[in-house]
Specification:
The chain has helices at about 20-50, 55-75, 95-105, 110-130, 140-160, 175-195, 195-200, 200-215, 245-275, 280-300, 310-320, 325-340, 340-345, 350-375, 385-400, 410-415, 420-435, 435-445, 445-455, and strands at about 90, 305. The protein is mainly alpha-helical and about 450 residues long.
Protein backbone atom coordinates (compact mmCIF):
# COMPACT_ATOMS: atom_id res chain seq x y z
CA UNK A 1 0.00 0.00 0.00
CA UNK A 2 1.39 3.42 -0.94
CA UNK A 3 1.12 6.62 1.05
CA UNK A 4 -1.95 7.68 -0.94
CA UNK A 5 -3.77 4.35 -0.60
CA UNK A 6 -6.36 3.87 2.12
CA UNK A 7 -8.92 1.20 2.81
CA UNK A 8 -12.51 2.05 1.84
CA UNK A 9 -14.03 4.26 4.51
CA UNK A 10 -10.74 4.60 6.38
CA UNK A 11 -8.65 7.69 7.01
CA UNK A 12 -4.98 7.98 7.77
CA UNK A 13 -4.54 9.28 11.33
CA UNK A 14 -2.52 12.27 10.06
CA UNK A 15 -5.41 13.32 7.78
CA UNK A 16 -7.81 14.04 10.63
CA UNK A 17 -8.71 17.73 10.85
CA UNK A 18 -9.66 18.86 14.37
CA UNK A 19 -11.07 22.24 13.21
CA UNK A 20 -9.94 25.86 13.00
CA UNK A 21 -9.62 26.71 16.69
CA UNK A 22 -7.90 23.45 17.59
CA UNK A 23 -5.55 23.81 14.63
CA UNK A 24 -4.59 27.31 15.77
CA UNK A 25 -4.08 26.30 19.40
CA UNK A 26 -2.12 23.13 18.72
CA UNK A 27 -0.22 24.82 15.89
CA UNK A 28 0.86 27.63 18.21
CA UNK A 29 1.97 25.00 20.73
CA UNK A 30 4.25 23.51 18.05
CA UNK A 31 5.71 26.94 17.28
CA UNK A 32 6.48 27.65 20.93
CA UNK A 33 8.17 24.27 21.24
CA UNK A 34 10.63 24.87 18.41
CA UNK A 35 10.95 28.67 18.45
CA UNK A 36 14.12 28.74 20.52
CA UNK A 37 15.75 26.25 18.18
CA UNK A 38 14.77 27.97 14.95
CA UNK A 39 16.16 31.35 15.99
CA UNK A 40 19.34 29.92 17.56
CA UNK A 41 21.07 29.15 14.25
CA UNK A 42 20.59 32.60 12.66
CA UNK A 43 21.64 34.17 15.96
CA UNK A 44 24.88 32.16 16.00
CA UNK A 45 25.65 32.66 12.30
CA UNK A 46 24.63 36.31 12.30
CA UNK A 47 26.82 37.14 15.28
CA UNK A 48 29.73 35.19 13.76
CA UNK A 49 29.26 37.22 10.54
CA UNK A 50 29.32 40.47 12.53
CA UNK A 51 25.82 41.59 11.49
CA UNK A 52 24.44 44.69 13.24
CA UNK A 53 21.25 44.20 15.32
CA UNK A 54 18.92 45.36 12.55
CA UNK A 55 20.40 42.96 9.99
CA UNK A 56 20.47 40.17 12.55
CA UNK A 57 16.74 40.66 13.10
CA UNK A 58 16.14 40.36 9.35
CA UNK A 59 18.14 37.11 9.27
CA UNK A 60 15.99 35.68 12.07
CA UNK A 61 12.70 36.67 10.45
CA UNK A 62 13.90 35.22 7.13
CA UNK A 63 14.49 31.89 8.86
CA UNK A 64 11.04 32.00 10.46
CA UNK A 65 9.40 32.77 7.12
CA UNK A 66 11.27 30.01 5.28
CA UNK A 67 10.57 27.53 8.09
CA UNK A 68 6.86 28.20 7.60
CA UNK A 69 7.05 27.63 3.85
CA UNK A 70 9.05 24.43 4.34
CA UNK A 71 6.54 23.18 6.93
CA UNK A 72 3.64 23.72 4.53
CA UNK A 73 5.50 21.83 1.80
CA UNK A 74 6.29 18.92 4.13
CA UNK A 75 2.83 18.63 5.72
CA UNK A 76 0.50 19.40 2.80
CA UNK A 77 2.77 18.23 0.00
CA UNK A 78 2.76 18.50 -3.77
CA UNK A 79 3.51 15.72 -6.26
CA UNK A 80 6.91 14.16 -5.42
CA UNK A 81 7.54 16.59 -2.52
CA UNK A 82 6.31 16.37 1.07
CA UNK A 83 5.74 13.38 3.36
CA UNK A 84 2.29 14.66 4.47
CA UNK A 85 3.24 14.01 8.08
CA UNK A 86 3.05 16.28 11.17
CA UNK A 87 6.66 17.47 10.94
CA UNK A 88 7.69 21.06 11.68
CA UNK A 89 10.55 22.28 9.49
CA UNK A 90 13.22 24.81 10.36
CA UNK A 91 16.91 25.68 10.13
CA UNK A 92 19.06 22.62 10.81
CA UNK A 93 21.64 22.70 13.62
CA UNK A 94 23.84 20.17 11.81
CA UNK A 95 25.41 22.79 9.55
CA UNK A 96 26.36 25.41 12.14
CA UNK A 97 30.01 24.41 12.52
CA UNK A 98 30.47 24.07 8.77
CA UNK A 99 28.88 27.46 8.07
CA UNK A 100 31.07 29.15 10.65
CA UNK A 101 34.09 27.51 9.01
CA UNK A 102 32.99 28.95 5.65
CA UNK A 103 32.70 32.37 7.29
CA UNK A 104 36.22 32.03 8.67
CA UNK A 105 37.62 31.42 5.18
CA UNK A 106 36.42 34.88 4.17
CA UNK A 107 33.51 33.84 1.97
CA UNK A 108 30.92 35.58 4.12
CA UNK A 109 27.18 34.89 4.02
CA UNK A 110 27.07 34.75 0.17
CA UNK A 111 29.45 31.77 0.20
CA UNK A 112 27.26 30.02 2.80
CA UNK A 113 24.14 30.61 0.71
CA UNK A 114 25.85 29.34 -2.43
CA UNK A 115 27.10 26.22 -0.64
CA UNK A 116 23.63 25.51 0.77
CA UNK A 117 21.97 25.86 -2.64
CA UNK A 118 24.50 23.71 -4.51
CA UNK A 119 24.72 20.98 -1.85
CA UNK A 120 20.92 20.82 -1.57
CA UNK A 121 20.75 20.22 -5.32
CA UNK A 122 23.25 17.38 -4.93
CA UNK A 123 21.22 16.07 -1.98
CA UNK A 124 18.10 16.12 -4.15
CA UNK A 125 19.89 13.91 -6.67
CA UNK A 126 20.83 11.27 -4.06
CA UNK A 127 17.44 11.07 -2.30
CA UNK A 128 16.40 7.99 -4.33
CA UNK A 129 19.19 6.08 -2.58
CA UNK A 130 17.93 7.05 0.86
CA UNK A 131 14.29 6.39 0.02
CA UNK A 132 15.11 2.77 -0.86
CA UNK A 133 16.78 1.88 2.46
CA UNK A 134 13.55 1.79 4.46
CA UNK A 135 13.68 -2.02 4.64
CA UNK A 136 16.85 -1.63 6.69
CA UNK A 137 14.93 0.33 9.36
CA UNK A 138 13.14 -2.37 11.39
CA UNK A 139 12.00 -1.54 14.96
CA UNK A 140 15.49 -2.54 16.10
CA UNK A 141 17.00 0.40 14.20
CA UNK A 142 14.16 2.92 14.54
CA UNK A 143 13.91 2.25 18.28
CA UNK A 144 17.61 3.03 18.74
CA UNK A 145 17.34 6.22 16.69
CA UNK A 146 14.13 7.46 18.35
CA UNK A 147 15.58 6.86 21.81
CA UNK A 148 18.76 8.68 20.82
CA UNK A 149 16.77 11.63 19.47
CA UNK A 150 15.17 12.11 22.87
CA UNK A 151 18.42 11.68 24.78
CA UNK A 152 20.38 14.08 22.54
CA UNK A 153 17.75 16.76 23.10
CA UNK A 154 17.89 16.58 26.91
CA UNK A 155 20.99 18.81 27.16
CA UNK A 156 18.99 21.46 25.29
CA UNK A 157 16.24 21.25 27.88
CA UNK A 158 18.81 21.47 30.69
CA UNK A 159 20.47 24.50 29.07
CA UNK A 160 17.11 26.24 28.80
CA UNK A 161 16.21 25.34 32.40
CA UNK A 162 19.44 26.92 33.61
CA UNK A 163 18.71 30.19 31.80
CA UNK A 164 19.71 29.57 28.19
CA UNK A 165 22.84 31.72 28.25
CA UNK A 166 25.84 29.97 29.82
CA UNK A 167 27.76 33.26 29.91
CA UNK A 168 25.16 35.00 32.10
CA UNK A 169 25.98 35.61 35.75
CA UNK A 170 22.74 34.00 36.90
CA UNK A 171 23.12 30.92 34.71
CA UNK A 172 22.04 27.86 36.68
CA UNK A 173 20.55 29.93 39.49
CA UNK A 174 17.81 28.52 41.70
CA UNK A 175 15.46 31.13 40.26
CA UNK A 176 15.88 29.74 36.74
CA UNK A 177 15.73 26.11 37.78
CA UNK A 178 12.77 26.79 40.08
CA UNK A 179 10.86 28.41 37.20
CA UNK A 180 11.63 25.40 35.00
CA UNK A 181 10.51 23.02 37.75
CA UNK A 182 7.32 25.01 38.21
CA UNK A 183 6.55 24.82 34.50
CA UNK A 184 7.22 21.08 34.54
CA UNK A 185 4.88 20.70 37.53
CA UNK A 186 2.14 22.60 35.67
CA UNK A 187 2.50 20.25 32.68
CA UNK A 188 2.16 17.23 34.97
CA UNK A 189 -0.85 18.64 36.87
CA UNK A 190 -2.70 19.59 33.69
CA UNK A 191 -1.93 16.20 32.14
CA UNK A 192 -3.21 14.37 35.25
CA UNK A 193 -6.19 16.46 36.36
CA UNK A 194 -7.33 18.27 33.23
CA UNK A 195 -9.85 17.15 30.63
CA UNK A 196 -8.70 15.45 27.44
CA UNK A 197 -8.60 18.83 25.66
CA UNK A 198 -6.64 20.46 28.50
CA UNK A 199 -4.21 17.54 28.63
CA UNK A 200 -3.50 17.89 24.91
CA UNK A 201 -2.83 21.60 25.38
CA UNK A 202 -0.85 21.07 28.58
CA UNK A 203 2.47 22.17 27.04
CA UNK A 204 1.02 25.39 25.59
CA UNK A 205 -0.90 26.23 28.78
CA UNK A 206 2.12 25.48 30.95
CA UNK A 207 4.30 27.78 28.83
CA UNK A 208 1.73 30.59 29.07
CA UNK A 209 1.26 30.14 32.83
CA UNK A 210 5.01 29.81 33.37
CA UNK A 211 5.61 33.02 31.41
CA UNK A 212 2.98 34.83 33.49
CA UNK A 213 4.69 33.64 36.68
CA UNK A 214 8.05 34.78 35.29
CA UNK A 215 6.61 38.21 34.50
CA UNK A 216 5.14 38.51 38.00
CA UNK A 217 8.46 37.58 39.61
CA UNK A 218 10.59 39.80 37.38
CA UNK A 219 12.14 36.95 35.40
CA UNK A 220 10.66 37.96 32.04
CA UNK A 221 11.67 40.99 29.98
CA UNK A 222 9.26 42.27 27.32
CA UNK A 223 10.96 45.63 26.84
CA UNK A 224 12.35 44.67 23.44
CA UNK A 225 8.99 43.74 21.95
CA UNK A 226 8.18 47.25 20.71
CA UNK A 227 11.71 47.99 19.47
CA UNK A 228 11.97 47.64 15.71
CA UNK A 229 9.63 47.25 12.75
CA UNK A 230 6.18 45.79 13.30
CA UNK A 231 5.69 44.45 9.77
CA UNK A 232 8.06 43.67 6.93
CA UNK A 233 8.23 41.61 3.75
CA UNK A 234 11.31 39.42 3.20
CA UNK A 235 13.74 40.83 0.64
CA UNK A 236 15.13 38.46 -1.95
CA UNK A 237 18.93 38.06 -1.73
CA UNK A 238 19.05 40.79 0.91
CA UNK A 239 22.46 39.59 2.16
CA UNK A 240 23.97 39.41 -1.32
CA UNK A 241 23.91 37.07 -4.29
CA UNK A 242 25.24 33.58 -3.53
CA UNK A 243 28.80 32.73 -4.48
CA UNK A 244 29.90 29.18 -5.21
CA UNK A 245 33.15 27.85 -3.78
CA UNK A 246 34.09 24.21 -4.36
CA UNK A 247 35.47 23.54 -0.85
CA UNK A 248 32.42 25.12 0.79
CA UNK A 249 30.05 23.08 -1.38
CA UNK A 250 31.83 19.81 -0.55
CA UNK A 251 31.69 20.62 3.17
CA UNK A 252 28.00 21.47 3.03
CA UNK A 253 27.23 18.33 1.01
CA UNK A 254 28.50 16.26 3.95
CA UNK A 255 26.08 18.24 6.11
CA UNK A 256 23.30 17.43 3.63
CA UNK A 257 24.04 13.72 3.97
CA UNK A 258 23.74 14.09 7.75
CA UNK A 259 20.47 15.98 7.25
CA UNK A 260 19.10 13.20 5.04
CA UNK A 261 19.97 10.61 7.70
CA UNK A 262 18.37 12.66 10.48
CA UNK A 263 15.26 13.48 8.44
CA UNK A 264 14.86 9.79 7.54
CA UNK A 265 14.97 9.01 11.26
CA UNK A 266 12.43 11.75 12.08
CA UNK A 267 10.02 10.62 9.36
CA UNK A 268 10.19 7.01 10.52
CA UNK A 269 9.92 8.10 14.15
CA UNK A 270 6.78 10.19 13.69
CA UNK A 271 5.29 7.46 11.49
CA UNK A 272 5.82 4.98 14.31
CA UNK A 273 4.37 7.36 16.91
CA UNK A 274 1.18 8.13 14.98
CA UNK A 275 0.96 4.54 13.67
CA UNK A 276 0.77 5.29 9.97
CA UNK A 277 2.28 3.62 6.90
CA UNK A 278 5.73 4.83 5.81
CA UNK A 279 7.02 3.33 2.57
CA UNK A 280 9.97 4.21 0.35
CA UNK A 281 7.86 6.52 -1.80
CA UNK A 282 6.68 8.55 1.16
CA UNK A 283 10.15 8.68 2.69
CA UNK A 284 11.53 9.91 -0.63
CA UNK A 285 8.86 12.62 -0.86
CA UNK A 286 9.82 13.85 2.60
CA UNK A 287 13.53 13.93 1.81
CA UNK A 288 12.93 15.74 -1.48
CA UNK A 289 10.89 18.36 0.39
CA UNK A 290 13.86 18.96 2.70
CA UNK A 291 16.26 19.38 -0.19
CA UNK A 292 13.93 21.62 -2.22
CA UNK A 293 13.29 23.84 0.81
CA UNK A 294 17.04 24.05 1.43
CA UNK A 295 17.63 25.08 -2.19
CA UNK A 296 15.05 27.88 -1.95
CA UNK A 297 16.00 29.03 1.58
CA UNK A 298 19.04 31.17 0.58
CA UNK A 299 16.82 33.20 -1.76
CA UNK A 300 15.08 34.57 1.34
CA UNK A 301 18.24 34.65 3.47
CA UNK A 302 17.85 31.35 5.32
CA UNK A 303 19.82 28.11 5.61
CA UNK A 304 19.44 24.31 5.46
CA UNK A 305 15.94 23.10 6.35
CA UNK A 306 15.08 19.89 8.20
CA UNK A 307 12.48 18.41 10.55
CA UNK A 308 12.61 19.42 14.22
CA UNK A 309 12.94 16.41 16.49
CA UNK A 310 11.50 18.22 19.52
CA UNK A 311 8.16 18.53 17.74
CA UNK A 312 8.11 14.78 17.22
CA UNK A 313 8.09 14.63 21.02
CA UNK A 314 5.15 17.03 21.15
CA UNK A 315 3.15 14.75 18.85
CA UNK A 316 3.89 11.86 21.21
CA UNK A 317 2.92 13.87 24.32
CA UNK A 318 -0.34 15.34 23.03
CA UNK A 319 -1.48 12.45 20.84
CA UNK A 320 -2.55 14.99 18.21
CA UNK A 321 -1.55 13.30 14.97
CA UNK A 322 -3.04 15.74 12.45
CA UNK A 323 -0.72 17.18 9.81
CA UNK A 324 -3.13 20.11 9.45
CA UNK A 325 -2.28 21.18 13.00
CA UNK A 326 1.37 21.42 12.00
CA UNK A 327 0.42 23.16 8.74
CA UNK A 328 -1.22 25.87 10.84
CA UNK A 329 2.03 26.04 12.79
CA UNK A 330 3.70 26.72 9.44
CA UNK A 331 1.26 29.56 8.76
CA UNK A 332 2.08 31.01 12.19
CA UNK A 333 5.81 30.84 11.37
CA UNK A 334 5.15 32.71 8.11
CA UNK A 335 3.18 35.34 10.03
CA UNK A 336 6.05 35.71 12.50
CA UNK A 337 8.41 36.14 9.58
CA UNK A 338 6.20 38.89 8.19
CA UNK A 339 5.57 40.50 11.59
CA UNK A 340 8.85 40.86 13.49
CA UNK A 341 6.99 42.29 16.48
CA UNK A 342 5.23 38.93 17.03
CA UNK A 343 8.55 37.17 16.72
CA UNK A 344 10.02 39.41 19.39
CA UNK A 345 7.04 38.70 21.63
CA UNK A 346 7.46 34.94 21.36
CA UNK A 347 11.22 35.33 21.79
CA UNK A 348 10.57 37.00 25.14
CA UNK A 349 9.34 33.74 26.66
CA UNK A 350 11.95 32.93 29.34
CA UNK A 351 14.26 30.03 28.50
CA UNK A 352 13.60 28.24 31.85
CA UNK A 353 9.91 28.01 30.95
CA UNK A 354 10.82 26.28 27.70
CA UNK A 355 13.25 24.09 29.62
CA UNK A 356 10.58 22.81 31.98
CA UNK A 357 8.32 21.91 29.07
CA UNK A 358 11.27 20.47 27.14
CA UNK A 359 12.01 17.89 29.83
CA UNK A 360 8.61 16.31 29.17
CA UNK A 361 8.79 16.70 25.41
CA UNK A 362 12.25 15.27 24.89
CA UNK A 363 11.81 12.58 27.53
CA UNK A 364 8.68 11.42 25.73
CA UNK A 365 10.66 10.95 22.51
CA UNK A 366 13.13 8.70 24.35
CA UNK A 367 10.25 6.81 25.98
CA UNK A 368 8.67 6.25 22.55
CA UNK A 369 11.94 4.75 21.36
CA UNK A 370 12.09 2.44 24.37
CA UNK A 371 8.52 1.34 23.61
CA UNK A 372 9.59 0.51 20.05
CA UNK A 373 12.61 -1.44 21.31
CA UNK A 374 10.28 -3.48 23.52
CA UNK A 375 8.87 -5.07 20.34
CA UNK A 376 12.29 -6.40 19.29
CA UNK A 377 13.20 -10.09 19.66
CA UNK A 378 16.35 -10.49 21.77
CA UNK A 379 16.49 -14.29 21.89
CA UNK A 380 19.30 -16.19 20.13
CA UNK A 381 20.62 -13.16 18.25
CA UNK A 382 22.89 -10.13 18.66
CA UNK A 383 20.11 -7.54 18.87
CA UNK A 384 20.93 -6.62 22.48
CA UNK A 385 24.53 -5.88 21.46
CA UNK A 386 23.27 -3.79 18.52
CA UNK A 387 21.03 -1.75 20.83
CA UNK A 388 23.82 -1.25 23.35
CA UNK A 389 26.36 -0.18 20.72
CA UNK A 390 23.94 2.03 18.81
CA UNK A 391 22.83 3.89 21.92
CA UNK A 392 26.43 4.17 23.11
CA UNK A 393 27.50 5.70 19.80
CA UNK A 394 24.66 8.20 20.00
CA UNK A 395 25.51 9.20 23.57
CA UNK A 396 29.23 9.77 22.99
CA UNK A 397 28.79 13.27 21.45
CA UNK A 398 26.53 14.19 24.37
CA UNK A 399 28.76 13.11 27.23
CA UNK A 400 32.04 14.02 25.47
CA UNK A 401 31.39 16.83 22.95
CA UNK A 402 35.10 16.99 21.97
CA UNK A 403 35.45 13.26 21.38
CA UNK A 404 35.74 13.63 17.59
CA UNK A 405 37.88 16.78 17.51
CA UNK A 406 40.97 14.90 16.31
CA UNK A 407 39.12 13.05 13.56
CA UNK A 408 38.98 14.19 9.92
CA UNK A 409 36.47 16.99 9.35
CA UNK A 410 34.13 14.89 7.20
CA UNK A 411 34.01 12.12 9.84
CA UNK A 412 33.50 14.56 12.69
CA UNK A 413 30.66 16.31 10.83
CA UNK A 414 28.75 13.04 10.56
CA UNK A 415 29.46 11.50 13.96
CA UNK A 416 29.34 14.69 16.03
CA UNK A 417 25.56 14.39 15.69
CA UNK A 418 24.31 11.79 18.14
CA UNK A 419 21.28 11.14 15.94
CA UNK A 420 23.22 10.46 12.75
CA UNK A 421 25.96 8.48 14.52
CA UNK A 422 23.45 6.17 16.22
CA UNK A 423 21.58 5.76 12.92
CA UNK A 424 24.75 4.87 11.00
CA UNK A 425 25.98 2.42 13.66
CA UNK A 426 22.55 0.78 14.08
CA UNK A 427 22.08 0.34 10.33
CA UNK A 428 25.56 -1.07 9.79
CA UNK A 429 25.35 -3.50 12.72
CA UNK A 430 21.85 -4.61 11.72
CA UNK A 431 23.18 -5.36 8.23
CA UNK A 432 26.21 -7.20 9.60
CA UNK A 433 24.37 -9.35 12.12
CA UNK A 434 20.91 -9.79 10.62
CA UNK A 435 21.22 -9.46 6.84
CA UNK A 436 24.58 -10.90 5.78
CA UNK A 437 26.26 -14.29 6.02
CA UNK A 438 24.96 -17.53 7.44
CA UNK A 439 23.95 -15.91 10.72
CA UNK A 440 21.93 -13.26 8.91
CA UNK A 441 20.21 -15.92 6.79
CA UNK A 442 19.35 -17.91 9.89
CA UNK A 443 17.97 -14.85 11.64
CA UNK A 444 15.92 -13.93 8.57
CA UNK A 445 14.20 -17.30 8.87
CA UNK A 446 13.03 -16.56 12.41
CA UNK A 447 9.34 -15.52 12.53
CA UNK A 448 10.07 -12.74 15.05
CA UNK A 449 12.69 -11.19 12.78
CA UNK A 450 10.41 -11.46 9.79
CA UNK A 451 7.75 -9.61 11.72
CA UNK A 452 10.24 -6.85 12.56
CA UNK A 453 11.27 -6.43 8.93
CA UNK A 454 7.65 -6.19 7.86
CA UNK A 455 6.91 -3.30 10.21
Amino acid sequence: MTDTDTKPGSTRPEDENPGLLANLAFGFQHVLTMYGGIIAVPLIIGEAAGLPPGELGLLITACLFMGGLATLLQTLGIPLFGSQLPLVQGVSFSGVATMIAILNTGGGLPAIFGAVMASALLGLLVTPVFSRIIRFFPPLVTGIVITTIGLTLMPVAALWAMGGNSAALDFGSMGHIGLAAGTLAIVLVLSRLGSAAVARLSILLAILIGTAIAAATGQADFSGVTQGAYLGLPTLFHFGWPTFQAAAIVSMFIVMIVTLVETSADILAVGDIIETKIDSRRLGNGLRADMLSSMIAPVFGSFTQSAFAQNVGLVAVTGVKSRFVVAFGGLILIALGLAPVMGRLVASIPAPVLGGAGIVLFGTVAASGIRTLARVDYEHNANLVIVATGLGAGLIPIVAPRFYDAFPAWFSTIFQSGISSSAVVAIVLNLMFNHTGARGAAHAALPSVRREAAL
